[in-house]
């Protein structure tokens, strides 16, 4: 099977590696930001993000070779970050075959109508016609996926047959995939979990060690709010209690950059300062913009502050410079 | 308000401390195993388990003063371990007033009919008449409750008014309490979470560090199985996704004796050996018997092994001496 992966960053490259392990003919196309990554793959050096040499079945394609990379693809993996998604999909539109597009991209994007949309909605707008979009959710850190750590993923598409096709292409030994028709719920969970994982980091930094009850209470509150947001967005609340929600929140909150970003804020450093310090070290903090876009999406969907007490205080802390102790001191759990 | 607490161990004493902070007149009765604890409270020394001096409103009562301790009680807190519950409730029966009994005891108990029962069912049998049983669930480590760490609890009773009465007696600042009529779901979650938390410890010990995906996958599987068990036991699955389920599993799996017990097994030491080593250090491992009674309860309720793949392999590892790698290598997630 010919699999074309768009985006040579963490998750795109990890999925390319998995597809190659499954014996597929894999083309990994890098964006204009991925030149160094593509060069490393071409020269069979260690991938600078994944810290491993990719399978030799992965054939790299540079930014100018998009058409060739997509030619004859039977499955497309969309692994571009949410910031680059619209630009890449717009460029790729003329060459995109009518096959499932498995997207690992998480977040919301502002549409032409000025309001926030799910990635599958933004993709349709960017391509200019309906696309067979499959969203890949679940607790899956890219480095671990590439290294064959047992991982649970959740593929969702409006037509579940497309999700099943993707699952049989890449799922199997060590990568367990379940499928669903609830693309709305899965996308909303994936977009919200970075915001909440950052929030759990803030909370844990604030309450300090030996406060397991408080950590669990906040984790529970995050689950309740994610379930509410899924319902408001037309998804199935069961998805919030499954791999895209509880599962992915668990892995994102346990470790990683979003958590670290949050913990520094929780201990009292202003969010702007933490973000610029981490940016200076080339550490991406998706949770920072994720809180803003989650809050904006919730407001656009008419959810009141009282129903989202945790997200509301996170937004105050991170985007309105309200001191952590003041904001969290006001937090009332709605569970 | 006069509050009588039965059992002077971790959780009984923590609830006595909370009731005292709320201004109640508190009587703390110790069982025949609690003499040293009662003596410490009487002499205003540090409580040997909670490592703190209790509020002076807590009046200790020794094992022979059960009748006096219960006289005039407007609320009874049942803080005896599941092993002692039937014996204590049988002794207390003649003196138990017709008031709510808030029970922090977790587990299942074999009844006179030879099958496993929830604690509220066992309590009714032990007392010999209907009791106004309120089950206290949720992520609440006793030491942290006593030290006023923000904690979320979930009180459930067949007549929710009794749960609300308990919530207004002890809930409030730092102890957030929600109430429910789903006593079946809450009790089942509380009984199951020690088994699953031990299982997550085994799993994490087995997969090792830097396997966050695998940890999250197993956490998710535990949530799915707990929801199934709640449904089979006549509870509301929503309870499994709330504080008694997801929340309590989070705190129990994050740290503590059950987790430590599991991790040693996951790294390859046989369960019997870990249990005896921990027993020699006076460390209680509730997860050990919890796996046996959870498995027995599930079988008595006709749940098949295929629907509980995680609990099934945990039972094999801990109670049937199946090597960890062999049992976990066979695990297929049902999520």
Brief characterization of the structure:
Two copies of one chain form a homodimer. Chain A is an alpha/beta fold and 335 residues long.
Key features of this structure:
two-stranded antiparallel ribbon; 16 helices; homodimer; 335 residues; globular; alpha/beta; 8-stranded mixed beta sheet
Account of the 3D structure:
Chain A is an alpha/beta fold. Chain A is 52% helix and 13% strand. Chain A has helices spanning 10-21, 35-42, 66-70, 82-92, 119-127, 142-146, 160-170, 183-207, 212-232, 237-240, 243-254, 257-266, 271-280, 287-300, 309-319, 324-329, and strands at 2-6, 25-29, 58-61, 75-78, 101-103, 108-110, 116-118, 133-137, 151-156, 175-180. The first copy, chain A, has an 8-stranded mixed beta sheet, sandwiched between helices. In chain A, helix 4 (82-92) links the parallel strand 4 and strand 5 (101-103). The radius of gyration of chain A is 19 Å and the shape is globular. The mean pLDDT of chain A is 95.
User: Using DSSP, what is the number of strands of chain A?
Assistant: 10
Which residues of chain A form runs of ≥5 with pLDDT under 50? none
Alpha-carbon distance between the termini of chain A? 47 Å
| Largest beta-sheet details of chain A | 8 strands, mixed
Number of separate helices of chain A: 16
- The pLDDT mean of chain A sits at 95
What gross morphology of chain A would you assign?
Answer: globular
Largest interface: A-B, 39 and 40 residues
- In percent, how much strand structure appears in the residues of chain A? 5-15%
Strand order of the largest sheet of chain A: 3-2-1-4-5-8-9-10
- The ordered string of helix (H) and strand (E) elements of chain A is EHEHEHEHEEEHEHEHEHHHHHHHHH
Helix amount of chain A: 40-55%
What's the gyration radius of chain A in Å? 19 Å
**Quaternary assembly:** homodimer
